[in-house]
Amino acid sequence: MESFVLIAAGLAVLVGAIVQGGVGFGLGLVAAPVVTMLDPGLMPGAIQIVNVTLPLFTLAAEWRRIDWRGLGWALLGRLPGSAIGALIVVYVSAQTLGVLVGVMVLVAVVLTARSLSVPRNGATLTAAGFLSGITGTATGIGGPPIALVYQSAKGPQIRATLAAFFCLSAAQSLVLLWAVDRLPREAVVAGLSLVPFMIVGFLVSGPLRRYLDGGRVRAAVLVVAAVSALALVGQSVLR
Question: How many of the other CB atoms lie within 10 Å of CB of 237?
């Protein structure tokens, strides 16, 4: 990676890791639009490398709070969704993928900002896992569907359950991307290069979690994500 791309993408991953370390998701929302703008060829593989790594840190601290039943339903829907997402990566151009990522982020921002009330049961969890599989594999942004279903749960349960889901899901996506020849060496190297930024972000999220007001931080992140998504859509359309 060129120095500028590495630093810019690394800062986006760092901010995303702070958010995800605190609330359970958000890395993809913040980092995926930035990385796609910097180098579309790195997506979605580079973000998936980080996605499979970050949850391990959360699980090391909070694995006892995992909702195993809900996790099972979500993973049941995730597998077929991931297969569809892999096909999208194969047949969609980098330009179209840029628009897809941008629109996905905007939709996620709107849904998250509205804090829709979604019942948590086998049907909604399976459907959320299916949608997460499609968007996560195709764009690196798979958190919003599952997070919306779990938004009424307590913080530790949200973080632990989402961490387990993201870790297994990202690993699944990486295998599928490799199987369809959409996991280039450059994306793997880029993803590994971003891991140190992710670690710093996660470490920072711990002390800040108990002091920062979630409402203001969340609103600021949504604004940044929305601006990044709009810029990505504009760049892709004009390319």
Answer: 11
State the pLDDT at residue 92: 81
Tell me the average confidence (pLDDT) per consecutive run of 10 residues in the chain, 239 residues long. 87 92 83 88 92 93 92 95 89 78 81 73 94 86 83 82 93 93 93 96 82 60 77 71
Burial tier of 238 (Cβ tally within 10 Å: 0-12, 13-18, 19+): exposed
Residue-wise burial string across 149-165, b where 16 or more C-beta atoms lie within 10 A, e elsewhere: bbbebeeebbbbbbbbb
- At position 130, the amino acid (one-letter code) is F
pTM exceeds cut of 0.85: no
Buried b (16+ CB within 10 A) or exposed e, 48-74: bbbbbbbbebbbeebeebbbeebbebb
Cα distance between residue 218 and residue 106, in whole Å:
15
Our measurement of the distance from residue 224's CA atom to the centroid of its chain's CA atoms, rounded to an integer in Å, reads: 15
